[in-house]
Amino acid sequence: MTYHELHTALASKRFAPVYLVHGEEDLLAEECVNAIIDHTLDEGARGFNLDILYGGKADAQDALSHASSFPMMSERRVVVVKEFERLATTEAGRELLAAYFKKPLESTVMVLVSANPDFRKKPFTDLKKQAELIECKPLYDNQIPDWIEARIKKLGKQITPEASRLLQGYVGNSLRAIQSEIDKLFIYVGTKKQIELEDIAGVVGESKGYTIFELQNAVGNRDITLSMQIVERMLELGESPQLMIIMLTRFFTQLAKLGELRQRRASEQQMA
Hints:
This protein is of the alpha/beta class. It has helices at about 5-10, 25-40, 45-50, 60-65, 90-100, 125-130, 145-155, 160-170, 175-190, 195-205, 210-220, 225-235, 240-265, 270, and strands at about 20, 50-55, 75-80, 110-115, 130-135, 160, 195. The protein is built from 14 helices and seven strands.
């Protein structure tokens, strides 16, 4: 089951008794867990029917004692075990888990979270057969801009494709890091509906201590010494050379368009 398939199933009130949310993209994994909780329990029921355990501090018996308890004033209870790969399991514990996975309590939704499960070993071999598996693997480079655009659209704004690529260039492919910058961008742009290149540079670039627009201004002023200093600084800080070239190409294209308008004696308003 994919991230999107899970949300479709939850919206239709189709719940599995045991989920294994696995993969290294922790933001997607966290959102899958939250979605299961949100669709299963309302706020008032969570105090009695939501248990969150950590594999490094619990053992199989702890997890199963919670999973085997009946809900209070609710149709279901939810038991989340994070870092499930660290759950302390003896041979007896693994056998208890295997028995539960074969015949889980129908009123319990058990959510197991593991970044790096080993499907060659128990209890993951049992889960592969008995549980609903949800993979949250990192996105490929070319998938990130689309994810950014969809994310921002879901939150009520738009972003230009160029701005989306620039955001990825600054932040990288970590969805959690990108989401953190999106949160800052929403505060920065306020009621403005579209996020543009200048917004990315103003928020994300400034937080790194440089912007591509500083380089554009230096080039525009024909200051080769300052231009080279800025380029060296940006490269030292990990800026993508490809993005720098894209942005400088855009800058020169704008200058060419302005030059053509000026030759045609266009007004300042038309040039703007």
